[in-house]
Amino acid sequence: MEFSSYEEFWPYYVAMHSRAATRWVHLAGTLTGLALTAYGLARGRTRYLAALPLIGYGTAWPAHFLIEGNNPATFAHPGWSLRGDAQMIRMMLAGRDAELDAIAQKWLAGNR
């Protein structure tokens, strides 16, 4: 799919994460990758910088195939997907997972 702006892309991104399990796998992988990266930086071990993409994507991408049954949006829209992941995780940490579910269901209902 083609999008002319991030705002147009956002509901699609959320719809590609329509199941709560997918969103929570993303959150766990991203936060684990961030924690290991921060640990490595604090210890002066730059090789730990690889933890964020390896663990983040290494947990998120299989969730798309195994839980959602779709391809990660990152494949076609890497920049916007990274931004979407950050926005989605911020909303989840703020207790707004139900709002994400509503965005996903609305997009899916109008685009199947």
Descriptive tags:
mainly alpha, 5 helices, 112 residues, 0% strand
Could you explain how this protein is built, in words?
The protein is mostly helical. It has one domain (8-110). It is built from five helices and no strands. The chain has helices spanning 6-15, 20-42, 51-68, 78-93, 97-110. Helix 1 (6-15) crosses helix 4 (78-93), helix 1 packs across helix 5 and helix 2 (20-42) crosses helix 4. The protein is elongated. The mean pLDDT is 94.
What does the secondary structure layout of this molecule look like, with pairings?
Layout: H1 6-15, H2 20-42, H3 51-68, H4 78-93, H5 97-110
The whole-number mean of residue pLDDT values reads 94
**How would a textbook summarize the main sheet?**
none
Structural class: mainly alpha
Q: What is the percent of helical residues? A: over 70%
Element order, helices and strands? HHHHH
Distance between the termini: 13 Å
> How many individual helices?
5
Radius of gyration from the alpha-carbon trace, in angstroms: 15 Å
Q: Tally of extended strands?
A: 0
Quaternary status of these chains? single chain
Strand content: under 5%
Shape annotation: elongated
Total domain modules? 1
What's this model, at a glance?
This protein has helices at 6-15, 20-42, 51-68, 78-93, 97-110.
